[in-house]
Amino acid sequence: MLHMAQGDLSVRQNEQRRKLGAVYMTLNNPFYEVVDEEIRTVVENHGDVLISRDPALSVDRQREEIKELIAEGVEVIFINPVDWQRIEPALEEAYAAHVPVIAIDTSVQDEKYVACTVMSDNYMAGVQCAQHVIANNPGGQIALLKHTEAHSSVERIQGFRDTIASNPAFTIVDEEECLGQLEIAMPAMKRILERHPQVSIVMALNDPAAMGALAALQNANRIGTVKVYGVDGVPETKEMILQGHMTATAEQSPRQIGKQAAEQAYRLLAGESVPRVIQLPTQLLTRDILLAGGKEGWN
Fold it and tell me: What are the Periplasmic binding protein domain coordinates in residue numbering (predicted)?
């Protein structure tokens, strides 16, 4: 009888656990793995369950995963959209089902479907990289590695463009889409070098794309002759900067993004109001800053 009573109690406890869902554009990026880890820590500390999904950069798959999470009864959905515009039908379904959505790392086109957006100041990340370029180079030909479907990438590249435009000594001569993926950025950078061998500066939307550029530069025996910039603050990227292979990265804090997003979710579940946007600062990391110490691992 005691065993049965304990079993019944366990079932009731499981039924009382809230379910929250998270859908990222991809988990083939350590940045999102860290965000997910931080959200999961907060959720499990509340005794609840986080159901995470990876659509592998497919908008259609991400839409289906959101529908599935709604059907599973999640009470909040964290979303990092594959495409900041085409994700809207799924957001409409969550809105209609009264499931609040928290956007992480990037905004969506129609923010009325989102309760809160937690992200870095992506425009400023691009500005910081461009300011360093201008301050440390007499001029040069620039290549861009982009991901136009992600609004965070659009903002970073726009911040870079707007700032670099103030100095006519610099010219953006080429650009390619790479989805922010190392394995796509590498051949993209190879093609850029073939078209424009005089490129001396690369601005990549994120650190995986910057690492792809570095791999292509290494194959072309151009490491050290081209200055490469990224955004994220990936630990491996910091090592590349320390070695002198990469110039700088605008560091984000995936730990703070994840923690803040989870905290806002529980405020929503408690019936409290939350800010529409939480924007976190970025910091440009150069070799000098990294040599000063205290920047190991993820922020």
Answer: 24-272
